[in-house]
Amino acid sequence: FKQKTAYEISLGLVGSEMCIRDRGYTMSDILQHTIYMDYAATTPVDPVVLEAMSNFFVADYGNPSSMYSLGQEGRKALDEARERIAKVLNSRTGEIVFTSGGTESDNSALLGSALALREHGQHIITSSVEHHAVLHAASLLEELGFEVTYLPVDNNGFINVNTVAESITNNTTVVSVMLANNEVGTIQPVAEIAEIVKSKAQRIGHPIVMHTDAVQAAGFLDLNVQQLGVDMLSLSAHKFHGPKGVGLLFIKRGTPFRPIHVGGSQERDRRAGTENVAGIVGMSVALELSNIQRNELTSHTLALRNKIITSLFERLDGIKLNGPLDFRLPNNVNVSIEGIEAEPLLLGLDLAGIAASSGSACTAASLEPSHVLLAMGLPESVASSSLRLSLGQENTTEEIDYTVNVIVELVNRLRLINNARKVR
Ligand code: PLP
Fold first, then answer.
1. Percent with pLDDT over 70 in the chain
2. Which one of 362, 367, 374, 414 is the catalytic residue?
3. Is the dihedral of CA 267, 273, 276, 277 positive or negative?
4. C-alpha angle 174/180/182, rounded to 5°?
5. How does the average pLDDT of the chain come out, rounded?
6. What is the DSSP letter of 171?
7. Contact residues for 204 (Cβ-Cβ < 8 A; gap 6+)
């Protein structure tokens, strides 16, 4: 990751006396006791990001809405953060609204646009494989009297763009389709969908807001909002080596939006509440850095991902890759292993020092078959035997070899136990 040092120097973070990295904080140190293969759940904060944030906890702690200089330092930091982010998204600075993370951004996008356009219609469209932050916001709208169409997906998790066109009615006001799926990594044709939505809106004669949840895409895909053609886009900092509890919603100028968080007039009246200055600074640096490293991260994780898939298929029977090979996030592996429940496999991996997941983090806690895999047509038994490995910049070939060995050993052992139980 060569470009990173140049970036650190440009931020003036290298060699400073306070440099956290000089005090021994490196990402490899943090990860040394765990083989971390759950980057889709969260990522460690990059030392460069932590360093950039540190000033705003103690020295420059002023409220950015205060008039005096201490507050104005915070205001300046927010302005600079907005500029960094706008450059990556190819948006205007005024189109970035800071939030508390991906969930809030998704909730606000759906509720805020649906409520703003309610006089034009009460129909919204989303897909059956969205994150619960979108799906539960859609259910809330249903409770409020809206009608929601949940677009089906094919067995690789893709939405058919024609079904989007067919689903739009004169009452449709919002379409929300994720850019990349958190469980199987499927990349949706968002730009194509956005084009259809815009031309339908023109014909119908009222706006239809096009939102995309790009939370999992950051760090891997181009987030240029002009090219994507979207009106709204959600991001969450902790997915790209920024801090947890901070995110953003891009809202294109002129997009109808009724604020969901009300109170003070922060974020130009679109999201009330004192801004998380340190978090926002951290997110902006993390986003800029992840954009610089995007190609390198893609080729690094792609090589490791292909190695895992090939090795598992060579060494195990009854294994199925969930999701496509093309148009898939380069760091995502999701497999179902015949006869193996996710829970004992994940526990075994944990004992061997490997952090992995089955489905999304939330479904992993409740261990219900993933709604994404079910929507892709997998039977419940296959959906419950899924294992997700999501890779990142710190993973190595040695870790992949070790992990594959552990998985193969665990699966063979669990299958023996299952067979012995059947005989008894
Ligand atoms: N959307 C997607 C696709 C996600 O993967 C996640 C988190 O896993 C979220 C939204 C929610 O983000 P946050 O954890 O910042 O609330």
1. 92
2. 362
3. positive
4. 110
5. 93
6. T
7. 168, 170, 172
Rounded-to-10 torsion of CA 46, 51, 56, 60: -170
Q: Which atom of ligand 1 is nearest to the CA of 238?
A: 15
Residue 407 has pLDDT above 90, yes or no: yes
pLDDT grade for 366, boundaries at 50, 70 and 90: low
Beta strands in 2-75 (DSSP E): 35-36
Cα–Cα distance for residue pair 346/130, rounded to 1 Å: 24
How many angstroms is it from 225 CA to the middle of ligand 1?
19
Q: 85 vs 29, 258, 280, CA distance in Å?
A: 28, 23, 10
pLDDT tens column, 264-312 = 999 999 999 999 999 999 999 999 999 999 999 999 999 999 999 999 9
Higher pLDDT, 12 or 158: 158
Question: Looking at residues 327-356, what average pLDDT do you find?
Answer: 95
Check residue 240 and report its DSSP letter.
G
**DSSP bridge partners of 212:** 233
Interstrand relation of 172-176 and 147-151 (parallel, antiparallel or unpaired): unpaired
Ligand 1 pocket, Cβ-based, cut-off 6 angstroms: 101-103, 106, 131, 133, 178, 182, 213, 215-216, 236, 247, 360-361
Count each helix (H run) and each strand (E run) in the chain, helices first. 17, 12
Residue at token pair 């995007």: 294
Q: Which residue has the tokens 């904080």?
A: 25
C-alpha to C-alpha distances, 57 to 47, 210, 264, 271, 279, nearest whole angstrom: 16, 36, 22, 22, 10
Name the residue of 108, 110, 129, 131 to mutate for ligand 1: max ligand atoms within 8 A of Cβ: 131
pTM of the model: 0.93
Name 416's Cβ contacts closer than 8 Å, sequence gap at least 6: none
